[in-house]
User: Fold these one by one.
Assistant:
Number 1:
Amino acid sequence: MLAHNESHMEHKSNAYTRRSLLKTLGIGAGTLALSHFAGANAFAQQLPATAKRLPSFTGPGPNPYWNSVGPMATYPQKAPLVLLTDRPVQLETPRNYFLNAITPNEAFFVRWHLESIPNEVDLSSWRLHVEGNVNKPLALSFSDLLHKFKPITLAAVNQCSGNSRSRFGPRVPGGQWGNGAMGCARWTGVHFRELLDMAGVKSGSVQVQMEGLERGKGPHGMPSYEFKKSLDLSNPVLDESIVAYSMNGAPLPTLNGFPVRLIVPGYFATYWVKCLTDVRLLDKPNENFWMNPAYQVPDTPRGDTTPADVKAGKVKMVPIARMPVRSFIISPDGTTKIPAGLPVTVRGTSFSGFGRVVKVEFSESARGVWREAKLGEDLGPYAFRTWECAWTPEKPGKYDLAVRATDEKGSVQPDEGVWNPGGYLWNKIERQEVTVGESA
Amino acid sequence: MIGVGKKRRALFALLTGVSVLAVGAIYADLQIGYYTSSNLGSVAQPAPPHLQNDGVYSVAAYPLYAPQLASGVGRQDTAAYCNTCHTPSYITMQPPLPAAAWEAEVTKMGKVYGAQIPTDAQTRIIKYLQTHYTPETRKR
């Protein structure tokens, strides 16, 4: 659609079109210059179009866009973010924020399961409880957390289990995230183990369960009423976990879990319980809905399976755990044409839940001739690691840029997607089509 | 894709007309100064809140951006029952899902999550979603 057909609000100010400029210069029609053009009609068809909007949904095929397609929405303490759902709140971080290894608090994605989340917390009565199978139950104030423990700071990526779910084929129901349900912050707080030790875990304890202020309108005891997650006490990730009261040197935004949330480095965000209030030591494993069947993945390589195998009941499921290695192209993003011959810095980010990203490779074509990219600052094994690669597209045309990362365990991103009924664990090689135009 | 009708090259016109300019002027093909209306600028910035130095930490009400559900039989049941726990954005966000997937979703809301929906209303909700939100039927 052409702009001048679409709106009479169209405003053409100071418009030096070719003809008016030539007229100003006193050159009449029919000069050598104008003979290069097909005529006035062809020129009129090239008026700038009004920017097209994204569709309101994608599918049944995969979402082809980097982010999900919802409108931009503003929420308290937040910059405009991509809206998935308004109640419960789910917001996605726009692509451009991932140029930096640290995601700003105001841009950090938001994902709640239930609708009754706090608008207000009174720290004069708020307590963090450590209870259950312990020798000495604790009720700690925010001030206790600040002053009775040695603070620890760790940069770590928080990624929704369903990040990139909209890439699945066939599509699966659930939050239709693009790639922006992830972020990396510097989390400061208290060693989770220190809290457990202070309470004195009794022998016979097998799991620690976390619950926060998140509540729903459903009947008590049902998953539509409460959200509870647990981790095995034998899991070494507990040694690295933190109860964080600070995010990037500031209080956590309420939508990200003020006053404290659990940080489980390398693990998907489902365990990073927000607005944490209750830590419970259990003497038998908890099997509530949010542990099983929710957030379960096939016990297969990459968590991959097929709809047929699921239907046939052939697939053994296990709780989701660490995040597979991923990398992303952030710039160029395909919205700007690049003149041939212009040196461009391709930039992006990467991470792995299994430790440091040790290599990022870039390719300018689908043929996959890989070049090693330069890695950005190392903020720790569980943080975003930015990367960049100099690239000069010599000829006009379409380029299919690609990026893949390798982590310290030797895992390389595959060029195949994954499929499982929950829409989890996506880590396929990311691509970006870029248009290079003529420059002479 | 927006088609570009005609490949455009930068054009250099060497002007030699004696009455206009004594030297050559270089002209590159360009367009400038086109504007259009938009509704994206209609969201006002929030004013800074007034804060007290007590222990209460609060944020403003979370805004709703609930979309319109497709009109048709069963819309009222769908809006009423589903809205207890979530707004219709949970429906409109989904890709077009096969009829069986909608039936499974609604059944799960009752059996697994604990939504209390009478059987006849549940039947109408499933029918409504299948009528408007499958690959064959979804319009918007």
Note: Residues 1-42 of chain A have pLDDT under 50 and may be disordered.
Number 2:
Amino acid sequence: MTRYLRYLVPLLLFGLLAALLLRGLSLDPKLVPSPLIGKPMPAFSLSRLEDPSRTLSDSDLRGKVSILNVWATWCVSCRAEHEVLLQLARTGKVNLFGLDYKDERSSAQRWLSRLGNPYSANGFDEDGRVGINWGVYGTPETFIMDRKGIIRHKHIGPLTPEVVDKEILPLIASLEAESK
Amino acid sequence: MIPELGHFSLILALCMAVVLAVFPLIGSLNNTPGWVALAKPAALAQFCFTALSFACLVNAFLANDFSVAYVAENGNTLLPTLYKISAVWGAHEGSLLLWALILTGWTTAVAIFTRNLPPVTLARVLSVMGIISIGFLSFLLFTSNPFARVYPAPLEGGDLNPLLQDPGLAIHPPMLYMGYVGMSVAFSFAIAALIGGKLDATWARWSRPWTTVAWVFLTIGITLGSWWAYNELGWGGWWFWDPVENASFMPWLAATALIHSLAVTEKRGAFKRWTVLLSLLAFSLSLLGTFLVRSGVLTSVHSFAADPARGLFILVFLSIVIGGSLLLYAWRAPDVNSGGRFDMLSRETLLLGNNVLLVAITAFVLLGTLAPLIYDAMGWGKISVGFPWFTTMFVIFTPFMVFLMGMGPLTRWKHQDPAQLARTLRIAFVISIAAGVVAALPILHGGSWQAGLAVALSVWLLASLLLSLRQRHRHNVGVANIWKSFRMRGGGSYYGMIIAHLGVVVFIIGVTFATQFTQQEDVRMSPGQTYELAGYSFRFDGAKPVPGPNYRADRASFLVTRDNREVATLHPEKRTYTVQTKPMTESGIDVGLFRDLYVSLGESLGNGDWSVRLYYKPFVRWIWLGGIMIAIGGLCAALDRRYRIAVSKRVVAPEPSRVKAPGKKANA
């Protein structure tokens, strides 16, 4: 029997893989349960993308309804989303912050200067640590926080004009009204 | 009526697959020649019925028969004829039918072109392929029938995904499937050998050309896919580490290990168990790829309609085929003798080293691909593994692999004197280090250690290949003698190896230089405005609307000049397809051996202004050139005269044990 054992290793490895795949079938990769919704946003402090000598931290986002958009220059969907963010910023109704995720500072700066900068400020999350704390699964993602810094909504994938009109702006309006 | 004919024909194909899977296999085990002889006609009939079924679906697309649901979803009257045909495999059901067609095609090819194989072995090989075929045909018929009707029939079809309306992508899936499914031949040979208990050099010789041909197709398929992504996706990338790309890359890596390991088994009788395991692995990874693409467990840009029921079906099928074959392996492998002995330094050891590296890379790609799933299943949250993971892995592994690749051809089988090898390679080593240091110097391109490393590795490999050629022809002076040696000795595998390895040199240079020295700008341009990039000046001459057959396009014109001389006029387009209203970019590219100039249109910003991406990409062509050379090398190896000589020899002296019942230990 023992002489068969080492030759059973490939089979055992495949068994593990098959179990994993079976589990995977009942999970939806697009559905991201956000355990953070309803909780205070995770604390962070990052150097600003635009100016490394200054920092952006969670306290900058508190006290007003704010949006944190996670993006990167290597992300195609973020490029598609950028126009929408610019339009959103033009409405003047939002405090939009960016989290530049696992990126290079120079290319990110170039991106903003060429395409336009919709953000009030950007945190530069070079190694993705802050992204992990925020439960970032992929880019782009967008978080919405109320005045007290509680995460109220998370949108996964690029924002579209429909999403902005039907979800984001109404939510922001109701959050603004909420705690006055 | 014709779609029903196609459906019915597919059912008959499944019946034939059952015949093929059951009778020849049982006949080969209990010594019934009549059942064994059933293998060939059943394989042929299976292919004919599948081909007829496929033809019916093609006809439905050409005839715009929108009463067929699949055609209504993916066809359109305005589609150009080429894309009407490629729309057949543009979505899940049809691509699966193509898969089945290619599988039955390979089965038939094996049945026809291996006359020298003992009938019992051939029957087993074909039966195993029949079992695989049952899986795919019933998957088609029970979960994804491409001939399902829809009532009332819509007047117009939903159109083929605009992303897929590109000549490169019309032939990319067939090539890729030829490769994927071709791995089933090596798999079936391995299973047949395990059943018979006879794993020897002959088995490796039979399996080798088939495996190489499948590998060539896979290489071409992947190269085409990468080229398409570069042309169509509009941001100058050529590989994205997307789960579906990885699904095609993993079988390629395993197959690359396999063709090298098969060489050792054929020539030296060593590594038998390892070769069998790799044969099983290469096809298992192809099947795994199918599962990942179609079950929806991972998110990917290659969106096939995901359906958990389909996922479950493939998973059960996967478990039967892979689990069953690995169980057979665990049962039979202990009885296989280890074969030829070899020393610590020998060609065997070097090939084993490269094999281990290739399998390690495969494992890392698999881990990276499945990481999101593992995290999710374990409840650790969600992650995505991006470029950095894969890039780091390659930068770590590639140097070792290329180092061994350089030594391999110059090392003897069985035993190599280290001092002699060192003497031969001394010059290559010194030159490559020197070239690397020079290339990394800051005066060139501002200094890049990656470029230095790539140049050192390429020069090392190039020099060692030249040394190997010199060694082979040290007694042949002059071109005439070298040609004579080629005529007399043949050597398709040898020269194939040289070409394929040169392809690796070209590929490494391409990847590194294109990654390191690309210059890009995202700019807003008004008509008449000029922008300078990498010594070229791009003048935007405005964009105007142009109608296409099934889209509207904004077509821009760019005049590229260098030192006031015209280099090219580029016409990137922004297309909106009429039916699916998806915007698509069609990049304007000036192709060059040493650099590409690449312009893609972003958004219209009003007043004739556009956001524009400009790229200067040095050596990017070398990436695909390398891929093509690797494929040509494989083709040369597969066409080696040796296989044909071996064929004629065996025809003269047929195997005596024709229909001998293979007792479990009799042949072991």
Note: Chain B touches chain A through 47 residues (CB under 8 Å).
